[in-house]
Amino acid sequence: MWLLHIDDDQENRVPATVQVSSNRRKKSPRSPQNSFEDLVTMGNTRNSSKKRAARDKQAQKMAKKARSKENPTQEAQGDSKPAAKDTTFTFAQVAQLVKSGGQLAQKKETQANIEDFVKQEYWRRVKFITNDAGAIKGCHAYLNHHQKLMGDDDAAERHAFCVLYKDHFVDCLNKQRGYAQNRVRDACSQWMQAHNGQMPPKDGLSALLSRTWNPPAPLADNATDDQKKKWEAEWDLAIWYWDSLLAKATGNSQHWNEGIRYYKTISTACKPLDPNYLFMHTTTEAIALTFVRNNYRKWAAMEALKRANAGKKIKIMNGAAPTDVGNDPVVQGTFVTVYEDNGNKLARETPQSSAMEEAILAQLHNVHGLFAESQEEERRMKRRKSSIIDSAFMEEISGMESSDDETEAADEDQQGGGSDDDESSCALAV
C-alpha cells in the first residue's frame, strides 16, 4: 500500500549551517616552456571547469596506464617502495587527451539534444519503450530528425551511435512520462480545488475519450435549477478535458497551445503541409486518461490531506501502487486497455467523433469570447476593434470640446446683452 506522511515539525526545525569549501587550485607560476600539466590546466580558455576537470582525470588515467606498461609491479620487483611518478608524456598522448575531452563535451551535447527531441517530438506519438529494439528505433528517429548528425549515413556508424545512446534514450522517455504525469496531476488538482475536493468523474472522461459523450442540448427558458447544474457540469468537464487535461498531457507548450486548441479540433489539428502529423496524437489522449485512472484515489487522498492540514508538507512514502477494482495497476497495461480496446485509436474513426469535437470547440469560443478562425485573425480583429473604439472615443472628446466652446460663447452673449439692458433701464430711470 502507499502511505502519505505529514511533516508536523516544519516550524520548529532549525536550519542547518552550510559551509562551502573552495576546491579551486592555486595558479602555479608559468615556466618558460609549458609542461604537459600546464597544457592540460590551461587548455582552451573558453572551456568550462567541468571540461578541464574531465581532461585532467583522463590524463591521470592515461599516465597510470602508461606507467603500468613501462614499469613492472612492485611485487614482481620485490621492492616495497612506491615507483617514482613518471610525468613525461608523448605528443600522441596529449592529442588523445584533447580528443577525449572533445568527445566528452560532444556526448553531453548529444544527450541534451536527445532529451529535447524526446520532449518536443518523440513523446507525441510514443509513450513506452519495452526492449532494445524500441530504443534503437528511437535513436534512428533522432538521427533522421537531426540530419546534421548523420554524417555520411554509414550504417555501421548509425548502429554504433544507437547502441551508445539507447539507454539514455529510454531514460529520457521515462523522465518525460513522469513529467507529463505530474502536469496531469496539477490539472486534476485545479479541478478538485474548484469542485470541493472531488476528482473528475471517470465515466465522463471515458465517454469523452471513446467519443460516446453527447453534448447537452441548450437549456429551455423554464429549466429547473437541477437541470442547469447538470448542464453546467457536463460542459465544465468537456472544457476541462479539452482545455486543461490534454494540454498538460502533451508535456510541452507547442503541440496543444491556445493557438491550436481554440481554433482546431483534436482530429484535424496538424501541420499545414503534413496531415499525418497530428498535434494531439491518439496515444496522448490515452495516456492522459491512464494517468487519471491509475492515480485516482491517491490524488484524491492527497488533496484531502492538503485541505485538512493546510500549510503542512505532504510526503508520499514508498509502497505498492494503489489499485482500483477492475483496473490494471501497471501503467502500461492500463494504457493498452484505454488505447486499443475500444479506446481513442478506434473512436476517432467514428462519425460521432467529429460532431462531438465541433460542439466542444464551439462552446470553447463561447466561453472565451472568440470569433475568428485562427489566433492571428483574432488578434487582427481585436486590434481593429481597439482602433475603432479609440477613434470613436476621440470623436466623442472632440465633440464635447466643441459643445463646450459653443456653450461658453452663448454665455458670453447673454452676459453682454444683459449689460445693454441694464444701461437702457438706467437711462429710462433717469
TrEMBL record:
Acidic residues bias spans: 402-424
Region Disordered, annotated ranges: 1-84, 373-430
Name of protein: Uncharacterized protein
Annotated source species: Seminavis robusta
